[in-house]
From TrEMBL:
Name of this protein: Adenosylmethionine-8-amino-7-oxononanoate aminotransferase
Keyword tags: Aminotransferase, Biotin biosynthesis, Cytoplasm, Pyridoxal phosphate, S-adenosyl-L-methionine, Transferase
InterPro entries in the record: Aminotrans_3 (IPR005814), BioA (IPR005815), PyrdxlP-dep_Trfase (IPR015424), PyrdxlP-dep_Trfase_major (IPR015421), PyrdxlP-dep_Trfase_small (IPR015422)
EC number: 2.6.1.62
Pathway(s) of this molecule: Cofactor biosynthesis; biotin biosynthesis; 7,8-diaminononanoate from 8-amino-7-oxononanoate (SAM route): step 1/1
GO molecular function, one term: pyridoxal phosphate binding
Gene name tied to this protein: bioA
Length: 453
């Protein structure tokens, strides 16, 4: 519903006085007229003035079935009529048992147990604690280090930041972080290892790290197939299998962080399945509740779980809202919708449409790289297409494009190094997908044309 203009102004002022916004430049926000989103309709967001925006970022990668899906609303209401919250500490509730079983059935071979959490960061940290505890119980407590990929993002809390490798975050928080090692990022467009003749040399750099430090390493963390937060860096087919093979050979655990890629984003239900990889620990979230409630899960193999058996052993970890029944109920309803809407197949078909649309960007001036894996894609802009030299940061090219998209009725986000990231809700129709691409193409062309020469 449209709010009175004065009401919108009142809310903006109140917000700017009181709300501290995450990852938002302070002064720019205080000087802006922020959108006030009042509701959602399918794949559109609606603001307080009644303007509609295509949700091309799936509200940070979580929205799968569109906003206001009747089935999800009903599941939430039905659960609220029973109980909104109870704990999983030493007891259970029906939804937790059902959801854990369904997740295990959908997960890669070998995954057997599910621990519920409420954010991706906590899912990753729990995976790290699981891996370390596993080695303690196996009599190798010196295995307390972690290795992750260049450019990795595994979350925002201090433990998760420690295994992250994005320069802006790493540099800023360095004194607070645990030391970790990294291996090469699978960034074909800027790879100095293979000179555009990929032989997975990036994955092989893991071997050097494990050769050096292997005895102290608890686990290798990997974002299977696509590093979403650092700009949709798409690894070549077989990359994950190579990483997994090396980790196995050195006897360290493999943690797959599927926060950004799970639930059909890259084609199959989970990205690991494309490369036929079974990780020891699997973190899922973002799409788990179709974008309705904060719920994530850290899943583990039987081998990992069994290390916690006997002698009063346990996982010393858990959060107050772990396995919240409302969140669990809506996750179950979301999995029902995957079946009812045949969503995995739909997503794969839409990925073909997206690929067609993305082709139109390749000939636009200053477009350096176009990357796609399923319904995750990115357009990277550069100052010089020949040398791949980035634009000066101050130009804010990607920000200008996302702002222009907003004027044209679409919310879309950018990543570092002038990359526009495309994360449409899986449910998007062909027509909506083509509208999305058309708006982005227009915005990109206009902004590129307006740049100083
Ligand atoms: C989003 C994301 C996280 C962090 O999840 P939060 O819920 O924001 O804590 C971790 N890893 C990957 C790959 C992600 O995409």
């Amino acid at each position: 519903m449209d709010l009175e203009t004065t009401e919108t102004e009142r809310l903006r002022t109140l917000d700017q006085q009181r709300v501290w916004h995450p990852y938002t430049p302070t002064d720019a926000y205080l000087n802006a007229k922020p959108l006030v989103i009042t509701h959602g309709e399918g794949v559109y967001l609606v603001d307080s003035d009644g303007n509609r925006y295509l949700d091309a970022g799936s509200s940070l990668g979580v929205n799968i079935h569109g906003h206001q899906r009747r089935e999800l609303n009903e599941a939430l209401a039905a659960q609220a009529a029973k109980i909104a919250h109870t704990t999983l500490y030493g007891m259970t509730h029906p939804g937790a048992a059902e959801l854990a079983d369904r997740l295990v059935r959908l997960a890669p071979e070998g995954i057997d147990k599910v621990l519920f959490l409420e954010s991706g960061s906590s899912a990753v940290e729990t995976a790290m604690k699981m891996a370390y505890s596993y080695w303690v119980f196996k009599g190798s407590p010196q295995r307390n280090k972690f290795v992750s990929m260049g450019g990795a993002f595994h979350g925002d809390t201090i433990g998760a930041l420690s295994v992250g490798q994005m320069t802006i975050l790493k540099n800023f928080y360095q004194p607070l972080l645990r030391e970790t090692s990294s291996f090469a990022q699978p960034y074909a467009y800027r790879c100095g290892l293979c000179h555009n003749n990929c032989n997975l040399a990036c994955a092989d750099t893991l071997e050097e790290v494990l050769e050096r430090e292997g005895d102290e390493v608890a686990a290798v963390l990997v974002e299977p197939r696509v590093q979403n937060v650092s700009g949709m860096i798409v690894a070549r087919d077989g990359h994950l299998a190579r990483v997994a093979e090396i980790a196995r050979r050195y006897g360290v655990l493999l943690i797959a962080d599927e926060l950004g890629v799970g639930f059909g984003r890259t084609g199959p239900m989970f990205a690991c399945q494309a490369d036929g990889v079974s990780p020891d620990i699997l973190c899922v979230g973002k799409g788990l509740t179709g974008g309705y409630m904060p719920l994530t899960a850290t899943m583990a193999s039987k081998e990992v779980f069994d290390a916690f058996r006997g002698d009063g052993k346990m996982l010393l970890s858990g959060h107050t809202f772990s396995g919240n029944p409302l969140a669990v109920a809506v996750a179950l309803a979301s999995l029902d919708l995957f079946e009812k809407d045949d969503l995995i197949r739909h997503g794969q078909a839409q990925a073909v449409v997206l690929a067609e649309e993305l082709d139109k960007f390749r000939s636009v001036a200053h477009v350096g790289d176009v990357r796609q894996c399923g319904l995750l894609a990115a357009v990277e802009l550069v100052a010089d297409v020949e040398t791949r030299e980035p634009f000066p940061m101050e130009l804010g090219v990607a920000t200008r494009i996302t702002e222009r998209c907003r004027e044209l009725g679409m919310i879309i986000h950018s990543a570092p190094s002038d990359t526009i990231v495309i994360v449409p809700p899986l449910v998007m129709t062909e027509e909506e997908l083509r509208t999305m691409a058309r708006i982005l193409l227009q915005a990109t062309q206009e902004v590129v044309a307006s740049l100083p020469t």
